Amino acid sequence: ILFVISKPDTFRSPTSDTYIIFGEAKIEDLSSQLQTQAAQQFRVPDISSVITKPEMSPGAEADEEEDVDETGVEPRDIDLVMTQAGVSRGKAVNALKTANGDIVTAIMELTA
């Protein structure tokens, strides 16, 4: 524990090494500050800042504009494959159809 006076008024006795300090003393607990800093260091980042939208190349934009037959494939599965593999919607649908709807296999196929 440490006592801290942020704006002290200090006076020294001319006849001895005695000091008089006026001000508001506050208790500063260094161990709790270190614990707080350590906790913030190991804090899990926000998931939305970690996952980024896939960047599209000019060739991928052409695939994006085409209408893709999404029958038999869940829209959330398509979005997941697009996000994880960083590919266009058309490529994600084709990979899911090739993998018979298996998300993991589709992602592995696109990232290999």
What tags apply to this protein structure?
two-stranded antiparallel sheet; 14% strand; 112 residues; alpha+beta; rod-shaped
Walk me through what this model shows.
- The protein has a two-stranded antiparallel sheet with strand order 1-4. The protein has a two-stranded antiparallel ribbon with strand order 2-3.
- The radius of gyration is 31 Å and the shape is rod-shaped.
- The chain folds into two domains: 2-43, no CATH class; 49-111.
- The model is unreliable at 60-64 (pLDDT under 50).
- The two termini are 56 Å apart.
- The protein has helices at residues 30-41, 47-50, 58-65, 75-85, 89-98, 103-111, and strands at residues 2-5, 9-12, 19-22, 25-28.
- By secondary structure, it is an alpha+beta fold.
- The chain contains six helices and four strands; from the N terminus they run E-E-E-E-H-H-H-H-H-H.
- 48% of the residues lie in helices and 14% in strands.
- Residues 1-34 form the NAC-A/B domain.
- Residues 52-75 are annotated as: Disordered.
- This is NAC-A/B domain-containing protein.
